[in-house]
Write a structure and sequence with these properties.
- The protein is an alpha/beta fold and about 375 residues long.
- The chain folds into 2 domains: about 1-170 and about 325-370, Rossmann fold (3-Layer(aba) Sandwich); about 180-315, Immunoglobulin-like.
- The protein is about 25% helix and about 35% strand.
- The chain has 8 helices and 18 strands.
- Strands 7, 9, 10, 11, 13, 14, 15 and 16 form an 8-stranded mixed sheet that branches. Strands 3-2-1-4-5-18-17 form a 7-stranded mixed sheet, sandwiched between helices.
- Helix 5 (about 95-100) links the parallel strand 2 (about 85-90) and strand 3.
- Helix 3 (about 35-55) packs across helix 4.
- GO terms for molecular function: S-adenosylmethionine-dependent methyltransferase activity.
């Protein structure tokens, strides 16, 4: 609830101070440097692009369509130009007031402010809904609530076209962000050959940078025998969707697979930025625990973990440095989770494709969804 109140205050203030940039955050257009006609033309291009995607599926918007997060009516006017009846809804009263004055088709457009909770519309009262570059700025819990509300107000058989960010392309600066403490909370002391098991691990971000959620930033493990790595890649566990702030900790569950040969091993735990480096490679410490691989599992307490300090490798020190981008806060939703959520509430995801709407720093996707019942 506090998230929603803060969100409304933020966007209402942006609507008063720099509304065009708040909608389309081009750094060169900040401080009210957007040209109105050029800004509105982007809505026409985006609606044409959406219409093309729908046409590829032999579909189109019809009847009454909801523009969720309408802002200044950029998309609403473009939708109305095609002959649709459009209702734009936004959390920022200041945006809605301006959208009403900018309406080019007042006979086919209506603009409504709401409190960010339940949409002020009856069930199944729209034939479709469109939301671009809006859901990406809503925190996780209100985002899920918004998706459920959008499904509620669209009739069975109706279409929803929704864009969301999937992950931060560069989740933190390298190597400065690659500093972690890895502490074992619970782990098996022995396993049978090839057995699958789980390790509970507390990961702490020791760097000065926020770790943004990314499918490429994960906890992983190696298996060592007599100090040598015998299995370099095994399990993976992702961070929470909110990422991990500097100095913060999170408990992750890592699924592991025991080596197939019996013997005494060490399970080494480390963070990894896939395709770039293991944190150990840039000087972050790892944690190792002894695990006995035996023909028959034996219950035993977990041995004391060993923290292994390392020096950065010459190769790793040359990893490219990336800086966090400024702008309005983004909150990702992985496509698999989005699909599962929508299917759980009676929808079918007809089409899901990557796009560039999240900006250069973010992976993004747009989905065409049909409500089934």
């Amino acid at each position: 609830m506090n998230d929603v109140r803060g969100l409304q205050a933020t966007w209402d203030n942006l609507g008063k101070q720099d509304p065009y940039w708040a909608v389309l955050s081009d750094p060169d257009r900040r401080h009210n440097r957007w040209d109105h006609d050029e800004f509105m033309a982007t809505g026409h291009r985006h609606v044409q692009h959406v219409a093309g995607r729908l046409a590829e599926l032999d579909l189109k918007f019809t009847g009454r369509v909801l523009d969720f997060g309408c802002g200044l009516g950029r998309l609403s006017n473009a939708l109305a130009e095609t002959g649709l009846d459009v209702v734009g809804v936004d959390i920022a009263p200041s945006m809605v007031e301006q959208a009403r004055t900018m309406a080019r088709f007042p006979e086919r457009t209506e603009f409504v402010a709401y409190d960010g909770r339940a949409l002020p519309f009856e069930d199944a009262s729209f034939d479709g809904a469109l939301s671009l570059i809006v859901l990406q700025h809503i925190p996780p819990l209100p985002k899920v609530a918004s998706l459920l509300e959008l499904v509620r107000v669209v009739r069975p058989g109706g279409l929803l076209v929704l864009q969301l960010p999937s992950h931060r392309k560069n989740p933190m600066p390298v190597p400065a962000g690659c500093r972690a403490a890895v502490e074992v909370v619970a782990a098996p002391a022995s396993l049978t050959p090839g057995q699958q098991s789980a390790v509970r691990v507390q990961v702490t971000n020791l760097s000065e940078h926020h770790w943004h959620f990314s499918p490429f930033l994960q906890l992983g493990n190696h298996w060592l025998r007599e100090g040598a790595v015998v299995i370099g890649d095994d399990g993976r566990a992702q961070l929470p969707l909110s990422g991990l702030a500097a100095g913060a900790s999170a408990t992750l569950v890592l699924e592991i697979n025991a080596p197939v040969e019996p013997g005494r091993y060490e399970l080494e735990l480390d963070m990894v930025l896939e395709g770039v480096t293991w944190f150990q490679g840039v000087g972050s410490a790892t944690t190792r625990i002894p695990v006995e691989i035996t023909p028959h599992s034996v219950a035993a307490p977990v041995a004391e973990p060993v923290v292994v300090a390392t020096e950065p490798s010459a190769e790793a020190e040359e990893a490219p440095v990336t800086e966090d981008a400024g702008g309005i806060e983004m909150f990702p939703l992985p496509p698999a989770l989005f699909r599962s959520l929508l299917e759980h509430v009676g929808c079918r995801v007809l089409h899901l494709v990557e796009d560039e709407l999240g900006g250069p720093e973010w992976g993004s996707y747009t989905a065409v969804v049909q409500r089934l019942y």
